[in-house]
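ingest -> fold -> write
write: protein_1
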Amino acid sequence: MKKIATIAAAIGLTASIAATASADEVTGTATPATATSSTYGNTMMEPVITPEDIKPATPMIILTRITPFYFTNGSVMKAAGMLSPQTIDTTGQVVTDMSGNEWREVYTWLGLAWIKVPNSAFVIMP
């Protein structure tokens, strides 16, 4: 019985809304509004991109195994965290230590950090 009362109330409400919407009389003819140059002005602003706005792409590194990262380059004492196998973006900063290891600055969830690029990683140059 409750379902029938609910359905009847919904139909009555819908009919009431429809009657209200159709009660307004339309008089005269409507003219469509058009936008003209005087509406928005004659100046068309285009984005200006200068050479200073364009930054070169930085190398990407594809890590194929778990790799530790450090907050300073060359510090192999204690890792700040570990990166799982993934593709990571670099800042472009590269340092080679005295042992010939390549260190690259990367973006991590803790901010900027350094990784010693493992031999199994792939460095994709832009």
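write: protein_2
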Amino acid sequence: MIEWRDEFILGIEKIDEQHKKLFQIASEIYEATKNQLITDKYDEIVRLITELKDYTVFHFTYEEEYMHSIGYRKLLSHKVEHHDFIEKISNTDYSRIDKDQDQYLMELLDFTVEWIANHIMKTDKAYTIK
């Protein structure tokens, strides 16, 4: 499981806090996959997907406003990456969740963790370089 590490720090307090929250949501997804006490995880999966989508929309809006305020030249391409992530989460196939809940959660987790880590390390770090 991926955890917050100092290498993810951008040095922008609010954005770093928001990124930590994204890691927290990813951890909740991981915990849901490991919870053997719940046989039907459908409602929990839907809750996590909704939380992930809602929080990323909030975070991306904040981050884009910040980039606009500093005159970041690659704002539009950055927004495209954000849009693509939201679109992927929004296009959740809820019928697949019912068929194999743990597999779906692991796919969601893999996608989310890889995307967050790569996006912070490559795309987000670019707007902090002066």
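write: annotation protein_2
The mean pLDDT is 90.
The chain is about 75% helix and 0% strand.
pipeline exit 0
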